[in-house]
Write a structure and sequence with these properties.
By secondary structure, the chain is an alpha/beta fold. The chain is built from twelve helices and 16 strands. The strands form two sheets. Strands 1, 2, 3, 4, 5, 6, 7 and 16 form an eight-stranded mixed sheet that branches. An eight-stranded parallel sheet has the order 10-9-8-11-12-15-13-14. Helix 4 packs parallel to helix 5 and helix 9 crosses helix 10.
Amino acid sequence: MPLLLNREMVASLLTMRECIEAVEKAFAELAAGTAVLPLRTAIASPGGISLYMPAYLRGEDALACKVVAVFKENPEKYRLPTTTGTILLQDPATGRVCCILDGVYLTAVRTGAASGVATRHLARGEAGQTAGIFGAGVQARMQLEAVGEVRRLAKAFVYDLDPEAARRFAGEMSVKLDLEIVPVASAREAVRADILCTATTSPQPVFAGRDVREGTHVNGVGSHTPEARELDADLIRRAKLIGDSREACFREAGDIVIPIREGVITESHFHAELGEIVTGRKAGRMSAQEITVFKSNGLAVQDAAAANLVYRKALAGGIGVPFDL
């Protein structure tokens, strides 16, 4: 009988540490050719846009489709969130839906987990590093949590256009992670850290690429359209560039599309997909001086991997509401 898992149930089952491992396996499958990842499909209706994101992981036996809806008038007209997400998990042997689960919290965690995988393979390995977080929302929290899972951090800095949001972030996350977190007044203060994560809604670069030190690793997460970017062309030019998907980077990521359009780089500047790094098909960091950038667009294989993990844990723990279709 299928299971229904709400947000609270998903949150109780999905840890960042386990999600990083599941997402890493998904990227490995993508590189190995055992994943099926069609392009996301967008359908516009009078109220907004719905995105359909299917994926199949043969090795993990995970078949899923996430439906993301962005309806901007929802809060005012219907007292509903602007963005909603729901995941349908199917039994690959029968095609029958075996689980319906909330996708909002899961998406936040799996996005953080992708940066955790990238940081594990691309950031310098020494302990006592610092993290610079740009943005103070839910995804910024997930980014810091994921980085803290794969690197022993000494301190973190958070910068947000809203100083009060940065102060709240520092207070809450310092307790959660047992880590000193300092809210800073300028992007230039945060950009001096060893590992940077951008998780903002800014359509313009959030710091100057010339200020990024040699040896830094950067996770670019927030921008997701061809006309918006959080990272400037100078940083992209200086860095070894890795993305979750080559195709998505060239189609959707303004951080990469805009420098190509401006003639700062060519498509050959793109070094590898993350799965190629994970599986050793291509080299990651080659020196302590290299700057590495991971551009995250968000892939349905991440959703399938995380949803399958949650479902298996729910079955084992007797969690969820059974229902009959």
